Amino acid sequence: MLILWSIIFGPQFLKQDFRQDLASAEILKTFPLRGWQIAVGELLAPTVILTCIQWVLLVIGGGLFSQAVELIPAGATLGAAAGAAILLPTINLITLQVLNAAVLLFPSWFASSRDGAHGIEATGQRLLSMIGQFVAVLIALIPAAVLFGLTFYILRLFFGLGLAIPVASLAATSVLALEGILGLWMLGWLFERLDLSSEQTF
Fold first, then answer.
1. What is the pLDDT of residue 124?
2. 88: closest CA among 56, 129, 60?
3. Which of 95, 101, 174, 178 counts the highest number of beta carbons within 10 A?
């Protein structure tokens, strides 16, 4: 339950990225770095922090489930834990990219909700943004989920769960990694074209 909670709500709390540094964007633009390099630096910290927390939870959960060998085979528990450990970093990266892309696309909207907007208007704004971000993440996960299902189905016919799940997770991670690379490039492009002087909120 904690791992699922961390996937859904963890990125909302770890804001050591463009969401926190939006007001300092003009200073970041003076750095001798390309836009995609700035994006990598911004997203690296929250991705690593969230992934490390989830890996610790996986170790704890795997240890607890390993005691229930009569219900769940040890190979399946180990395979599921390994598969989740492989998938979680790229899932976190994709989720954080969606959140940061929304900030760079609509800086005035997010800045206004952060600085002073309260009440039902701000609540509705946050609800709409959360729904949009959730839908965007689901769409990004569809290709990886399809590849995972196909790979798992084929490998399950010849191997056990202990091998089928990690290999299928690795295949899905390759798709998510490609999406992550494209996403970092897009974030860099959005950051380079960002002009805070044209945003009335600032």
1. 67
2. 56
3. 95
Where does the pLDDT of residue 39 fall: very low under 50, low under 70, confident under 90, or very high at 90 and above? very high
Q: Where are the domains of the chain?
A: 2-107+119-198
Q: How confident is the model at residue 201 (pLDDT cuts 50, 70, 90)?
A: very low
* Rounded Cα–Cα distance for residues 110 and 132 (Å): 14
Measure the CA–CA gap between 199 and 193, rounded to whole angstroms.
Answer: 13
Task: Give the Å distances, CA to CA, from 142 to 76, 149, 157, 186.
Answer: 24, 11, 23, 19
HEC sequence for 139-200? HHHHHHHHHHHHHHHHHHCCCCHHHHHHHHHHHHHHHHHHHHHHHHHHHHHHHHHCCHHHCC
For the chain, the distance separating the N- and C-terminal CA atoms, rounded to the nearest angstrom, is: 40
- pLDDT at residue 111, rounded to an integer: 57
Q: Decide if 88 contacts 7 (C-beta within 8 A).
A: yes
**Backbone angle region of 159, left / alpha / beta, with phi > 0 → left and psi within -120 to 50 → alpha:** beta
Q: What is d(CA 176, CA 184) in angstroms, rounded to the nearest whole number?
A: 12
**Residue pLDDT, tens place only, 144-170:** 999 999 999 998 888 877 788 899 999
Taking the C-alpha atoms of residue 103 and residue 135, their distance in angstroms, rounded to an integer, is 16
